Amino acid sequence: MPSSSLPIQPSDPTSEASDAKIPARAPAAGVGPPTPLIPAQDDTLTRAQNGDHQAFAQLYSLHKRRIYSLCLRMVGNTAEAEDLTQEAFLQLHRKIATFRGDSAFSTWMHRLAINVVLMHLRRKGLALISLDEAMDPTPEEGPGRSFGSPDLNLTGAIDRLALERAVSDLPAGYRLIFVLHDIEGYEHNEIASMLDCSIGNSKSQLHKARLKLRDTLRNSTGQETRK
Amino acid sequence: MTDDRNTISCAEFQAKLPELIGSGVDVSTDPHLQSCDLCRALLADLETIAEAARQLFPIVEPPEDLWEHIESALKDESDAVETDKKEDKDDEKKGS
User: Fold this and answer.
1) Backbone angles phi, psi at B52, to 5 degrees
2) Residue of chain A nearest B21, judged by CA positions
3) Same domain assignment for residues A182 and A221
4) What ipTM was reported for this prediction?
5) Does A148 share its domain with A101?
6) Model confidence over A10-68: pLDDT tens digits?
7) Based on CB atoms within 10 Å of each CB, which residue in A117, B2, B50, B89 is the most buried?
8) What pLDDT does A98 receive?
9) If DSSP codes are grouped into helix, strand and coil, which group holds residue A77?
10) What is the Cα–Cα distance from A213 to A129, expressed in whole angstroms?
11) Are residues A87 and A176 in the same domain?
12) Does the CB of B53 have a partner CB in chain A at under 8 Å?
């Protein structure tokens, strides 16, 4: 793997050792902070850890939306997101007894799901996006291209559907960083740790992702205008 | 265009953006932006996109039948574990 490619080397998503890399705080942006465990949930967790199927079902109900939404944003299509959500909860079932409460359960679960997605992308042989591309942009992606005429300024003009479409159309590597940083609220140092890449690479990928989104959104805005 | 624009090119300014955006530095006060409409528009767009991402994405409900699939897979795993245990016991009996 070239040194400039984005390595996808997810750590064991459920080992407490690898959890040392997990941000202590819960990622919060965009979708709101994971729900802290209240006593009833704490009891549910304990029962699930002891093999209570009903309790596990309750945990599923509590976390399914957030996990599915995360998977959907990271992979960009519903079929894969469903498979990955299922795999995340199967992993949870296998490993839940190892959760020791060093971090909030929702944070642990969230990170487990991220690692399931990363493993999936890696198995697909997805180089995601080569950082060769990010660091050595083709002429059409170079900085100069990012200029736009001021009349196409996006400010105040982004609607959710357009942005969702644009994000799902991003190359996988760009999408991954954008989702983790701008939607899920992870910091660059946390993303660098998760993906085993440099902080600079994370920043660069994010910037390229935003530039691509801008191009996409401006193009769609232009098309709308021309209609 | 002012002298500021000449001391740092748009390309140089944009090369700094990945480091500056989100760093806590108030990029809007950068001298280059005072004289460059294009980079000011670019910065506004990128900040708008980041802000929109934080605010616009909703939580999505998974399909209702997903839990059934998960339960089915959990049962399959449980059955496989039981089968393995039984085979281990059988092997032990044969060994003894």
Assistant:
1) -60, -40
2) A207
3) yes
4) 0.71
5) no
6) 444 444 333 334 444 444 444 444 444 455 667 899 999 999 999 999 999 999 999 99
7) A117
8) 93
9) coil
10) 15
11) no
12) yes
Q: Which residue has the tokens 């400039």?
A: A4
| Interior angle at CA A121, CA A141 and CA A180, nearest 5 | 65
Chain A interface includes B64 (CB < 8 A): no
Do A58 and A115 fall within a single domain? yes
CA distance B7 to A218: 29
* Chain B nearest C-alpha distance from A204 (Å): 6
Alpha carbon distance A143, B13 (integer Å): 10
Q: Does B75 touch chain A (CB under 8 A)?
A: no
> Of A91, A123, A155, which residue sits at a domain end?
A123
Q: Is the model's pTM score more than 0.80?
A: no
State the CATH number of the domain containing residue A178: 1.10.10.10
Look up residue A207 and give its amino acid.
Answer: H
User: B83 pLDDT band (50/70/90 cuts)?
Assistant: confident
How far is the C-alpha of A45 from the C-alpha of A14, rounded, in Å?
15
Residue A109, CA distances (Å) to A22, A37, B66, B75 in order: 11, 12, 18, 21
Residues A152 and A135 in one domain: yes
Is residue A5 domain-resident? no
B1 part of contact set with chain A, CB < 8 Å = no
Contact criterion met (CB < 8 Å) for A153 and B61: no
- A38 and A54: one domain? yes
B20 contacts B50 by C-beta, under 8 angstroms:
no
Same domain, A30 and A118: yes
CB-based contacts of A54: which residues, under 8 Å, 6+ apart? A47
Contacts of B77 in chain A (CB under 8 A): 90, 93-94
**Which two three-digit tokens encode residue A183?**
């939607």
Q: Let me know whether A70 and A95 are in one domain.
A: yes
Considering A110-114, A158-162, A216-220, the range whose residues carry the highest mean pLDDT is A110-114
